[in-house]
Predict the structure.
Amino acid sequence: MPHGYNGKILHVNLTTGELTIEEPEEKFYRKYMGGSAMGVYYLLKEMPAGVDPLGPDNILALCLSVMTGTPISGQSRMTAVAKSPLTGGIGDSQCGGFFPAEMKFAGFDGIIVKGRAEKPVYLWIHDGRAELRDAGHLWGRVTGEVEATLREELGDDKIEVLQVGPAGEKGVRFAAIINKSNRANGRTGMGAVMGSKNLKAVVVRGTHKPTVADKAALSELARWGATHFPESDVAGLGKYGTAETTGAQQRAGGLPTYNFTSGVFDRWEAIDGTTMYDTILRGADQGKQDRYGRDTCYGCTIRCKRVVEIKEGPYQVDPKYGGPEYETTSTFGNYCGVSDLPAIAKANEICNKYGMDTISCGATIAWAMECFEEELITVEDTGGIELRYGNAEAMVKMTEMIAKREGFGDVLAEGSARAAAKIGRGTDEYLITSKNQETPAHMPHTKRTLAVIYAVNPFGADHQSHEHDPSYRFYPERMAQLGLHDPQPKLALNAEMVRYAMITQHLYSAMDSINVCQFVFGSAWQLYGPDQLVKAAQAVTGWNVSLYELMQVGERRLNMLRAFNAREGIGREADTLPKKFFDRPLKGGKTDGYVLDRDEWRRAVDTYYAMCGWDVETGYPTRPKLEALGIGWVADELGLA
Amino acid sequence: MQVSVHMHGILRDQLPPEAKGRTTVSLDDGATVGDLLAHLDIKRRVIVALNDGHEPDETYVLKDGDEVSIYTIIGGGCET
Ligand code: SF4
C-alpha cells in the first residue's frame, strides 16, 4: 500500500461516457510526483500536436500529488493542465482550497478528461466511485448558486465543487476553473477548456485519508511551522493577505501602474492589504476580521485568504466569493488607476462568480484603458463607456461585460493580444503580454530576472515560477542549500543571476509537481525551506527522497512543458517580452526612466537556454538533455535526432 | 531629535491599533537607523526608506525631522 497517494488515476471520456481507472506503478509516482509533471505526461502521451484547444481532442488533466491531503500546511493544491486557448501552447494553473484534499480522500490522484459531452454533465466522485450526471439544470448559472444546488441535490454539506462559471461556458479565453466559489485555477484559460467539454463541474467527497509513512516526523515539521510562523516572513501575509506587499512594491517603484506606464501609484494606500483589513474584511466593523475575514486551505496554518463583505453602497460584495489578492488589487487597481477598494472587491467577486482569471481580466481592461486614453479605442468601440484610467464604474462594468461576452466585452474576452489583432490601429504597441498571457503585477524593471522568466516560461508570463531577485541577498542560508552563494548587485542581469533564476525555477517547478503552496514551501522567505520540503516528502511517502531528486522532478517538468510547446512549433520566437518594456521608459517615482535593454536581455536568454541544455537557436529541449532527465521517450515523441 | 516613523504591513502591529503604524520617536543626536530599529524592537528582516527614497543601511546617522518608512520584505521583497 503506497503512502500519501491512492495509486489510481481516473480517465474520463466525455464523448463515449466511458470511465476507466488506471493504476500506475510506484516508479511513475516517484518520477513525476504529481501536479503539472503528471498532467503534461498524459498530454504528451495521449494527445497529438495541433489540436484545437477548445475542441474535443484537447485533454484536461486535473492532478494532485503524492503529498495532497496529508496533515501539513500548504499541501492542498491541484494543477490543471491542457493546451491553452490563450497561449496556444501548454496551459498550466494551480489552485488551493479544500477540493484538492477532498479529491484525494475520494480515491484518485488525477483525473484525465478527454472528448466532449453531448450535453452538459458533471462528474460525481465519492469514495472511489465515479459517475457522470446530467448538469443541464446547472448550465448558465453562477458558481455560488451551482455550489448550493449541488449540496442540496447530493444531500451532503461536505462535498467540494470544482466548476466552470458562465465565462468558461462562453469560452472567455482566460476563464478560470473555480472551487469553493472563491479559489481558482486562474491562469491560461483552463476554465474555457473545461467549458468547451460541456463539463460543468467535478464534485468530490471521500472518507479515505491517505496514510503517512512517518507520522511523527510530519507532526514534528507541522509543530515547527506553527511555532515559527508568528516570527516568520509570512506572518504578515497571513494577517494582511498578499496585498500586504503593495507598499513595498510602491516604495521600490515596482507597483505596475497605468498598464505598466509607471512603477508608482499615488493612491496605493487606499488599496493595500492593511486598508483592506481595516475596512472591508468580514467582521472589520466589530474588529473581528481575524475570525471572520480570513480563510484558509485544507490544513494550512497561514490563513492568507481574504473574505470581504460589503453590505452597503454601490459595490456590495457577498463573502462567499472571497476577497482580492495582491494580483487582483493590482490589475483592477493600480494597472487601471483605480483606488476604489470596494469596486476592486466587486470586480473580484464577478470573476469568482462567473469564473475568470483576475490577472488577465484586469490587465486586459487596463490595456484597453490605455488605448482609450491614446484615442485608439473610442466610445464607438466600447458602446459609450468612457474607459478611462481611474474610472472604477467603467472597470466594474467592463468586467461584467467580459464575463457575459456582451458588447465590447466580447472583444476583450479574447484576451488583450487577440483583441489588439482584431482592433488594429497600433493598439498592439500597448500590450503587456508574453505568449498572449497578460503580465502579472511584478516588474522586470526592478526585478530583472523576471525579464528572463516571463519570456521563457512555457505558459506565458508568470510570477510564481522562480524566486524574485532580492531573495538572493536576503536569505543566504536557504540559498546555500541550492548552491547559490554569490548574490549580485541590484538590477544585475548577468550569468550568475540567470543561474539563480534557473535553479530557483527548478525548485518552483518541483513544487508545482509535488503540488505545494509557494507561500508555505520555497527557496527563501516561505515558512519552510528546501530542506524541509525534502523532509515533508520523505515523511509522507516513506521514500528516501533527496533535494537532488526533487530538483530533477522540477527540471523534468519544465522540459516536458517546453517539449509540449516544441511539438506545437512554439520555441524561441515565442519567448518574448512586451515591446513596451523595452521602448517606453517608466514615468515617476524611484524607477522614473527605467527601461529594459534589448541586447542585455537577449544575452541573458541565450545564457539561460545554454544553461538549460537546450538548443539556443530554437529554444527546444535537446535529446541529450531529455535523456539525461530520464525522459528519452519525450525526445522520441518530438522526433528528435 | 525626533523622527517620524511609518511602520508598514505586519510591523504596524507593534504599535497600538489606532496608530495605524505611525509614530514619532525621540532619539539621541547621532542615533543611527540601527538604533531606531532597536528602539522600536523590530526583529524582522526589513527595508528602511527615507522620505527622499534613499534606502540607508543600519549605520546611517539620522537627522532631526527625518521621515522613515519601514517595510517587511514579504514575498522576497522588491528593491531598486
Ligand atoms: S498560505 Fe494561503 S494559499 Fe497557501 S495553503 Fe495556506 S491559506 Fe492556502
About this structure: Chain A touches chain B at residues 231, 233-237, 239-240, 242, 244-245, 247-249, 251-254, 273-274, 278, 442, 446-447, 467-471, 474, 490-491, 524-525, 589-591, 594 (CB under 8 Å). Chain A is about 40% helix and 10% strand. Residues A 73-74, 96, 296-297, 300, 302-305, 517, 519-520 surround iron/sulfur cluster (CB under 6 Å).
